[in-house]
Structure formats: C-alpha cells, structure tokens
Predict the structure.
Amino acid sequence: MSLSAMSQAFANYLENPEVEKYIAEISAEHKLGQAELKGLFKKISPQQSVLEKIARPAEKRLEWKDYRPIFLKQDRIEQGVEFMRQNAALLEKAEKQYGVPAEIITAIIGVETKYGRITGDHPVFSSVATLAFDYPPRSTFFRGELTEFLLFAREERFDPLTVKGSYAGAMGMAQFISSSYRRYAVDFDGDGKRDLFNSRADAIGSVANYFKAHKWIKGEAVTERVKISGDALQPLIRDDLKPSVGQQALTAKGVKLNGKSAGDVVVLSLQGSDGEEVWVGHHNFYVITRYNHSALYAMAVYQLSEAIKAAADA
C-alpha cells in the first residue's frame, strides 16, 4: 500500500482537511489546545515505510516453520534465562500478585523487544498519524490510538515528537500501544511513574497486569500438541482464535488432552519444518493472543517460555 496522491500533495499533516477536522473534534472533547495540536501536526508528514510494514506483518506472510526460528534461537533463550535470573525477585512478586508465570512474562518481553534491547526507532506520533489518516483498513482504530497517545503525552508530560517505538506505535520494553499503556501499565517499582521505557520492574508488572486483566487462569494449561492429522479434525478447525470447541468433541475424535483446563479449546493446524503440526489451544493460549492477535505469535511466546524454563531449571 502506498500513500494516496492527496497525501503526497501535503507538505505536512496540517494541510490535510481530515486532520483539521480531527483536531477540532479532539480539542473539544478532551480539552486539548488547538494551537498546540496544530503546531505538532505541522511538524510531521506521512511515512511510506510505515504503510509498507503494516501491509506485510510476519504473522500474516510466514508459515510456522519460518516464524518459529525467528524467536526460538539459542541466544534469545539464554538471554531469557539471564533476564529471569537478574529479575527473579520482581518476577516472583508479579507471579504472586497477578498469577502469571515468570517464564510467560519473560517470554513476552523476549519476543517483543529481546528483553528491552530492540524497542523500535519509529517516531510514534508520525507513525500512528500515518495509520490514522493514510491506512483506510484500520483508520478508525488508529485515530483512536492517536487520541490515546496525545492524552498519554499530556498525562505523563512528555513531548509527543520525541517518543520512538514500533511502526504501529507500540512502546517500551513491553511494546504497549497507547491505549494499553494508559489502561494496563503499572508503577511496579513504586517511584510514582509508569515507565515501560526504562524500568524493568514496571515492564514486568505491566505485562502481568495485562494478562490478569484479560483473564489469565493461574495453573491452567496453555496449549498442547496432539498426534492426529488435521484432516481428521478439519471440522473443528476455525479461523477465530477464541476457544469454541468443546473438549468432548475432541474426545469423540479419539484425542486425549493432558493439560489442566476444563473449558472450550481452539484447534490449530500449523505448518512446521517436518510437516503439519496439530495443536490444541486452551483459554490461556487465547489470552496470549490478546497481546497480539496471532496464533503464531502466541505459539512463539509459549514455546520460548518453555525453553527458557527448561534451560533455567537445567
């Protein structure tokens, strides 16, 4: 996807009539100063690179056999073990308070930013503005995120032009988008700030809080592989990630589940390096997909968490 001819004609976003309308609306609704907003939009312009990246996310263009090796590398596993060792007390505190295992919290941060090493170099304001005004498939969502970002900047008293993150506006070690930052980030180190950019404590606590808010069930299974062909389970495979298959339906097909979980499940057919892999995702697997709406993402988080835990316990 490329910028429209109209967008290319604007030297900056302030020249776009849609932006003028947006400024008037959020200024009235949220008491944000129009002059200040106009000054900000005058300094940014559409970002073609952002549109190119959102059109080709890895989760949509890769099979599991190609996606898995990106995250299940030895260095990421070893760095995860080190992250757990260095932050053992914080992870234990988060697990006790929110019920989310230390290895799951660690794996999320490992997949998102390689434990804080890669947090993104895209200017968040111009990136989200590009998606809000030049990406029609999700413009409504990103206009909401743009407003959340501006409110977040006002609340935390920072210059919107200085913050960097992912091409989609995710920020900090945990890669929270603005609405998630405002809703789920916590001050886990008690310094009076919710800082996902510099505080490992806040990142750890915020990931755990996010999972608890999305109804993570302590002690229950995440996912398990089953030894049966996808053809046999084809009627049970859905596009929707939300668990909707009763376990009795799997029992009727001869599938015995070992994971502790009483609710409905989702059946997944993934293309692994040795052919088809059939997995059953429980409720907690669905919770991971609330962080990123992708079965590949959730599977990478789960398998990385298991690899980190096994290496740490070895």
User: Anything to note?
Assistant: The chain has 17 helices and five strands.
